[in-house]
């Protein structure tokens, strides 16, 4: 049985990975007129809060000014990926990426000079650089300690408005809380944020929910804001958000929730839909199984429903992520890179991977393991020289950073992808020239 | 920490100190202590049981949950082997719900001593243990996971026990029969002594730091590995223990139907025991001198695996979700060596008469399988000292099956939820399918509920946090629910959540590789990035948990 | 529940062991992170107290008896969306198929079983029991009527068993059995582009309910019969017409059972797009003067489970060309991430109407969110389910086949072929 579908492709730039680093690399490449071929597994993008952090913490202390933090990194940890990138490039990466996402229909705040203090579901907050438009009112309400009504839902485990209010109480005493049944989903059986979010894309459901929220607001007394778990639509949150604010007659903000949550789904579905419309060739939910480096090209192999597909590329950006994404694998005797068995900078033995205290503010050594790159973000081999002039790496797979503890996940993804694309473009340019 | 001169610990209780009165104070909330509490209650004697942590926080929770057929001891200790058989039969009668009579195999693998293997059948018959000789092929048919390299195999009537459930049931029966009480997180820090009599025990609530006194007629030290320290508080040096730390690893799913024992002298990783829905491989044995802050190590896990893989090769690629350690108190005879494996597995009951005390007893040593017998002998002594002549009834009286007592059994919650078909009873822990109603019943009436039900206390009394995600999701969901219920009302709840994750982590750390590592990476992303717990003020310290409650990764075994 | 009944105990298997055997190592149930993305995006979540995550967890916990007995497996349409959204790529549908196969025939939903039995009864492989000779007769009669009713089609052909034809065309039984006039638009399209095609009297039917019973042998028997028929006629390309699972059942069956297929399997959607691009089908949206809005349902079986985005792109290209760029509103989510409507996997035939409509409520909401008055889909099960949802929940949208709109745009559509069009399109 033969299929007529093409089984081999060629591209100038292949992007491997479908997290923030992979998708932003494709966006930056498209900006430069390069049409990439992007292949990536489903990946953990769906787990994100939706906040784009640049740098929120250093040594366990919150940063109001991420740029000052990066300056400190340059002095104290010059090998940190962010320390190796000029502020101008980081700024360009952020503003271009947030701008592109906004243009595609999911508005984000313009990234500025200072961190925003954004809400977390258990009644804490975190410093971040850019937040979805549906969440910005929460930053404002917290900053001004405005009286707000936090609403949670019957059947939604893991998000408690009462918990949110109890833990914020000392600094934000004007918080009130209420529990509502979501229209048509109020048997008490589990309701998922995704299901509520998709339901709210239907105007009639927005009206029904808004009426209940109005009732809760009346009962709560003086309220200037309404806070909801992130359920305001998956596909068109801006529209759902605006409409709900109109119907409730109060500013509304979303609060990120634990998985399975909506903010990450929004990004994933947006990228998968909008980027191919802009020219990207995307093989979503596919995992590159083999990568061959040849003299003048790289060959990627992956499998779709009908069998093997090969892509020949002039340059490759590895944005394959860490253990959860499958870019790195941890075996009892060591950590390896999964595609090319590239050298991974790592602690000497498994006993050195983790610290004794889970929450040790210094973070775990394993989180700083990863690939080493040169200043052009080309992956370094065992001899300390680039493995290939055409193999670049970006994102969390890079060594010498701890994106979770330092709250710099988006920062590293975007800035390193920006630089890798810049260098890949220069390489491609040379080849044309 | 014990004061340097125990006799002067509290010569006179400070004024306004709360004082509790009871007939017997039992120290140590393991299977033995709770067994004594039950035994006394069935004789009509009321007691208070204290533990510096919570139920089964020591060796009672830090073991395989194996109800030995005695096969293990058949070769060199016929008496212990017989005792195991007899006690196993009693437990199967009085608490069948706690026991999985899964049976066991002893198998010898290429490289093991063939002569030892050959003699095994004879040892078993001498000890009265029913055993059948199998060909390697027959054994592999029963247990397909067995290595092709086995050359000898025997069946034995091994079983497994849920030590948490039986502990909860014992406490509950004592509460119902005699109004006995259990006080968790209450540490005895000294005794008031006069003329060969203990007048009172000075205690500290390790959560609040509050000091209080318990006055009793009899004092029983069933503190397991801590028995030597407690005895010294009462000025008794006769209790001399060796501490053997044992580490086990838990797989994500059940690898074999039966207990699989290696047919050779005891060593690392030589027993694979099913724990309902999982399997546990152990045990290492290392002499330690410190009891606190013990945690399983990468090296111990690797040692268990190296040996276990020889018996069951699939262990090489299995996902492990946790490791845990227990400390076995081993009685040191005057001339005994220091090898933990060779020291006596028998138990000892000290009446401390020679040391001039008339109302103090210590029981320690022994093994899980024979805990009831230990409790009986101890209670006989205590009852006679109290002039109570009622006979022991623990071998005949059925243990109670209460709503709040059954959630520790692996797989129970899932079956219960699925058969009840009440979608409104939301599942809070998805891995083990623990529903809200389980948390409700624990909060309402599980032993210890009189006091305070934290996330961690609920976890001890259920399967919350025991599944693949090791609490990384359900810790968040259960906490939210406790806020909803008004049990948590302040950032102290966040502190409890943080402590819970930090505690689970100690057992996860040494098994972090392969399929477990992505789970841990996601957990850290959630706990730090989404919940902000790494940078939250450790509210527990500020708010309530001012005590120096030790936090060792012991007492969390048997399928936990 | 009227369809499936689990009163008696079913044979029990070890689901975890089977998952280890059937799924690739990285995607075994052991890799499950318990995050719930699968359940969050599954419309069968909550039905019968189950969801995909619970299915996996219960397998890991060894609750094999419960899993072997749960009727939930008949509400899961095996659409594979769970695997699609899972970072570890864990597929629940494979084990659902296995569990279905374990149920004794008499306990399985009788609608699915009867459909499969009907398929087994003759060479037609028709689930509606249309015999080969009946099919030939119905085709001839229908052809005669079209030829007689419109002189433009006096020479219209609908060949059967024409050896060496380039295209082998299959046909969902619904048309010959219930609404033969709906075959007309398809034949007109084929005629318009000058395709060299044939039906077959044997193995012509598209649907395969045997696959949904979980009985691999029956699935195989149906595919074998069809593959033999195509091989025998020596056709180069087998074109699956507007039926979603038909494409999956054939190509997957060939692969799964190691059959020899001397032809290329293709979807009619691919050819619609190709013919439009090549100018052979000069369709446009001029007819849509009122700016009627259209949306599109991607059949899971055709897109996610088979051809993927190339077919999804083709579908959109065809719809946009047909109805006008501005009149197309994509359903959300779509393409590979699309939700199953609840008509697949035999659900429509399982007699579990309450569960099926609860499942379909999410699809209904997605349709309503587009505000479109027409839903297009190249799948009969999607078609019937979305129509039923519209009636049940009070939606006013229409569900149409592609061939209807293509002929409408080309001015070839007869009055009798407008059954699925609203009143505003009866006269255009």
From TrEMBL, chain A:
Pfam family, one: FAD_binding_2
The protein's name: Anaerobic glycerol-3-phosphate dehydrogenase subunit B
Protein origin, superkingdom: Bacteria
Signal peptide: none
This protein's UniProt keywords: Flavoprotein, FMN, Oxidoreductase
InterPro entries reported for this sequence: FAD-dep_OxRdtase_2_FAD-bd (IPR003953), FAD/NAD-bd_sf (IPR036188), G3P_DH_GlpB_su (IPR009158)
One GO CC term on file: glycerol-3-phosphate dehydrogenase (FAD) complex
Span of domain FAD-dependent oxidoreductase 2 FAD-binding: 14-412
Single GO MF annotation: glycerol-3-phosphate dehydrogenase (quinone) activity
């Amino acid at each position: 049985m033969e299929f007529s579908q093409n089984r081999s492709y060629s591209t100038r730039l292949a992007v491997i990975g479908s997290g923030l680093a992979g998708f932003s690399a494709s966006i930056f490449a498209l900006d430069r007129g390069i049409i990439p071929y992007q292949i990536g597994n489903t990946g953990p993008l769906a787990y994100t809060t939706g906040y784009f952090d640049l740098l929120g913490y250093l040594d366990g202390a919150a940063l109001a000014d991420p740029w000052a933090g990066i300056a400190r990194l340059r002095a104290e940890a010059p090998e940190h990926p962010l320390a190796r990138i000029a502020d101008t490039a980081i700024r360009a990466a952020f503003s271009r990426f947030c701008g592109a996402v906004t243009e595609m229909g999911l508005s984000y705040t313009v990234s500025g000079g200072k961190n925003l203090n954004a809400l977390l579901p258990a009644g804490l907050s975190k410093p971040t650089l850019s937040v979805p438009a549906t969440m910005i009112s929460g930053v404002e309400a917290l900053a001004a300690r405005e009286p707000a009504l936090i609403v949670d839902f019957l059947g939604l485990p893991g998000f408690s408005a009462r918990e949110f209010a109890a833990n914020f109480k000392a600094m934000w005493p004007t918080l009130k809380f209420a529990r509502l049944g979501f229209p048509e989903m109020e048997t008490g059986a589990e309701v998922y944020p995704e299901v509520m979010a998709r339901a709210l894309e239907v105007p009639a459901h927005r009206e029904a929910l808004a009426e209940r929220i109005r009732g809760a607001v009346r009962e709560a007394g003086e309220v200037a804001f309404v806070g909801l778990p992130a359920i305001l639509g998956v596909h068109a949150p801006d529209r759902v958000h605006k409409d709900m604010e109109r119907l409730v007659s109060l500013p509304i903000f979303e609060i990120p929730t634990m998985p399975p949550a909506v903010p990450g789904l929004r990004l994933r579905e947006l990228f998968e839909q909008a980027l191919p419309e802009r020219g990207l060739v995307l093989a979503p939910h596919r995992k590159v199984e083999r990568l061959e480096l040849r003299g003048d090209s790289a060959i990627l192999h992956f499998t779709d429903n009908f069998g093997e597909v090969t892509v020949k590329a002039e340059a490759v950006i590895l944005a394959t992520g860490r253990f959860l994404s499958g870019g790195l694998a941890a075996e009892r005797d060591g950590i390896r890179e999964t595609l090319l068995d590239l050298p991974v900078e790592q602690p000497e033995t498994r006993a050195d991977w983790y610290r004794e205290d889970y929450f040790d503010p210094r973070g775990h050594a394993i989180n700083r393991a990863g690939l080493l790159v040169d200043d052009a973000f080309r992956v370094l081999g065992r001899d300390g020289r680039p493995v290939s002039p055409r193999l670049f790496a970006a994102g969390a797979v890079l060594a010498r950073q701890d994106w979770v503890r330092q709250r710099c996940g988006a920062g590293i993804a975007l800035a390193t992808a920006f630089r890798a694309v810049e260098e890949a473009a220069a390489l491609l340019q040379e080849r044309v020239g | 920490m014990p004061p340097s001169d125990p006799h002067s610990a509290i010569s006179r209780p400070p004024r306004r100190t709360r004082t509790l009165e009871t007939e017997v104070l039992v120290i140590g909330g393991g299977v033995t202590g709770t067994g004594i509490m039950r035994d006394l209650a069935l004789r009509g004697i009321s007691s208070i049981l204290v533990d510096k942590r919570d139920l089964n926080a020591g060796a009672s929770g830090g073991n395989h949950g194996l109800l030995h057929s005695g096969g293990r001891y058949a070769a060199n200790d016929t008496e212990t082997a017989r005792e195991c058989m007899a006690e196993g039969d009693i437990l199967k009668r009085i608490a069948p719900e706690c026991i999985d009579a899964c049976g066991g195999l002893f198998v010898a693998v290429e490289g093991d001593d063939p002569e030892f293997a050959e003699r095994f059948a004879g040892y078993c018959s001498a000890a009265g243990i029913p055993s059948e000789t199998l060909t390697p092929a027959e054994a592999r048919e029963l247990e397909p996971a067995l290595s092709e390299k086995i050359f000898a195999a025997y069946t034995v009537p091994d079983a497994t026990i849920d030590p948490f459930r039986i502990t909860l049931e014992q406490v509950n029966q004592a509460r119902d029969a005699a109004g006995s009480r259990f006080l968790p997180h209450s540490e005895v820090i000294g005794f008031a002594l006069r003329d060969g009599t203990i007048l009172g025990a000075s205690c500290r609530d390790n959560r609040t730091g509050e000091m209080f006194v318990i006055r009793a007629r009899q004092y029983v030290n069933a503190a397991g590995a801590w028995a030597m320290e407690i005895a010294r508080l009462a000025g008794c040096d006769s209790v001399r223990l060796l501490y053997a730390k044992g580490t086990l690893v838990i797989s994500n799913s059940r690898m074999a139907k039966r207990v699989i024992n290696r047919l050779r002298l005891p060593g690392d990783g030589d027993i694979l025991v099913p724990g309902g829905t999982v399997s546990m491989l152990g045990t290492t044995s290392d002499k330690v001198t410190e009891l606190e802050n013990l945690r399983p190590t990468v090296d111990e896990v690797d040692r268990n695996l190296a040996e276990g893989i020889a018996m069951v090769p699939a262990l090489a690629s299995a996902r492990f979700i946790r490791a845990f350690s227990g400390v076995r108190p081993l009685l040191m005879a005057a001339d005994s060596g220091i090898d933990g494996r060779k020291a006596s597995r028998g138990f000892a009951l000290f009446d401390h008469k020679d040391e001039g005390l008339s109302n103090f007893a210590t029981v320690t040593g022994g093994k899980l399988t024979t805990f009831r017998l230990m409790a009986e002998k101890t209670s006989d002594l205590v009852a006679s000292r109290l002039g109570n002549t009622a006979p022991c009834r623990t071998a005949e009286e059925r243990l109670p099956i209460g709503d709040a007592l059954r959630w520790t059994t692996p797989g129970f919650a899932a079956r219960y939820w699925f058969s009840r078909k009440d979608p409104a009873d939301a599942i809070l822990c998805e891995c083990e399918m623990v529903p809200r109603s389980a948390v409700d019943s624990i909060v309402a009436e599980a032993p210890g509920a009189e006091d305070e039900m934290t996330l961690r206390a609920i976890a001890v009394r259920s399967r919350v946090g025991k599944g693949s995600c090791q609490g990384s999701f359900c810790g968040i969901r259960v906490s939210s629910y406790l806020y909803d219920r008004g049990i948590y009302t302040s950032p102290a709840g966040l502190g409890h959540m943080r402590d819970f994750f930090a505690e689970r982590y100690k057992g996860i750390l040494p098994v972090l590789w392969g399929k477990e590592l992505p789970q841990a990476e996601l957990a850290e992303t959630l706990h730090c990035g989404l919940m902000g717990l790494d940078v939250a003020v450790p509210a527990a310290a500020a708010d309530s948990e001012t005590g120096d409650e030790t936090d060792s990764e012991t007492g969390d075994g048997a399928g936990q | 529940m009227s369809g499936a009944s689990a009163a008696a105990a079913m044979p029990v298997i070890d689901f975890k062991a089977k998952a280890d055997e059937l799924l690739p190592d990285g995607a075994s149930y052991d890799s499950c992170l318990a995050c719930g993305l699968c359940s969050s995006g599954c419309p069968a979540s909550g039905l019968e107290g189950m969801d995909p995550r619970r299915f996996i967890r219960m397998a890991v916990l060894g609750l094999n008896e419960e899993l072997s007995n749960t009727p939930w497996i008949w509400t899961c349409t095996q659409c594979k969306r769970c695997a699609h959204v899972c970072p570890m790529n864990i597929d629940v549908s494979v084990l659902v198929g296995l569990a279905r196969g374990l149920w004794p025939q008499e306990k399985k939903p009788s609608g699915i079983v009867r459909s499969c039995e009907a398929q087994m009864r003759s060479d037609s492989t028709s689930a509606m029991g249309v015999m080969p000779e009946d099919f030939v007769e119905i085709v001839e009669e229908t052809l005669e009527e079209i030829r007689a009713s419109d002189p433009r089609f006096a020479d219209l052909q609908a060949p059967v068993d024409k050896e060496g034809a380039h295209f082998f065309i299959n046909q969902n039984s619904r048309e010959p059995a219930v609404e033969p006039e709906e075959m007309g638009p398809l034949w007109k399209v084929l005629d318009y582009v000058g395709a060299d095609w044939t039906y077959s009297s044997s193995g012509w039917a598209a649907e395969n309910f045997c696959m949904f019973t979980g009985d691999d042998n029956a699935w195989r028997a149906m595919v074998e019969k069809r593959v033999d028929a195509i091989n025998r006629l020596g056709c180069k390309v087998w074109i699956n017409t507007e039926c979603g699972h038909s494409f999956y059942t054939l190509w997957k069956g060939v692969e799964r059972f190691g059959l020899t297929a001397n032809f290329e399997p293709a979807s009619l959607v691919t050819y619609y797009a190709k013919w439009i691009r090549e100018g052979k089908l000069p369709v446009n949206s001029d007819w849509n003067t009122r700016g009627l809005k259209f949306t599109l349902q991607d059949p899971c079986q055709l897109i996610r489970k088979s051809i993927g985005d190339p077919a999804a792109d083709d579908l959109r290209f065809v719809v946009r060309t047909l109805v006008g760029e501005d009149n197309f509103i994509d359903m959300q989510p779509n393409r590979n991430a699309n939700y199953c409507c609840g008509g697949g996997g035999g659900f429509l035939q399982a007699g579990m109407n309450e569960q099926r409509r609860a499942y379909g409520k999410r699809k209904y909401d997605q349709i309503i969110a587009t505000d479109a008055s027409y839903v297009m889909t190249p799948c009969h099960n999607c078609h019937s389910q979305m129509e039923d949802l519209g009636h049940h929940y009070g939606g006013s949208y229409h569900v149409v086949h592609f061939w209807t709109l293509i002929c409408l745009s080309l001015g070839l559509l007869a009055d009798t072929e407008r059954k699925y069009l609203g009143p505003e399109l009866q006269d255009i």
